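Q&A log
Question type: sequence-to-structure
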Amino acid sequence: PKVEDDFSREHELFLCDHLQGPVFVSNWPKSSKPFYMRECHHDCSLVSSVDLLVPGVGELCGGGLRELDANKLKSSIADNPDLDWYLDLRTKGSAPTGGFGLGFERLIQWLLDVENIKDTIPFYRTSHECVL
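Response status: OK
Response body:
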């Protein structure tokens, strides 16, 4: 992929196959991540984030640091009034934060070597059966 693009699942699986195991990919291009990700100190085109890629699955978990500088956030959200609340949080001061997410079904898929992630979903689902 181009530097500014995100990886597809095929790219993730290729990296794991090529390196013969799980791989951490860090400092992603800023253009492929959400507005609130913190820029890397050494390169402002990258953000402080990390993804763990595992064989047979691709991305198992991902995370990153959140931007604290209200001025940087303001320039990245431009004129989106729906995000004023987020900017307001940073303007009034907040603690440094980060976060990550781990896909439960992906973890099960990797640990049990299940080919299709649909076979790891713990709750039965079919379309048009949920009465609202």
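Response note: The radius of gyration is 18 Å.
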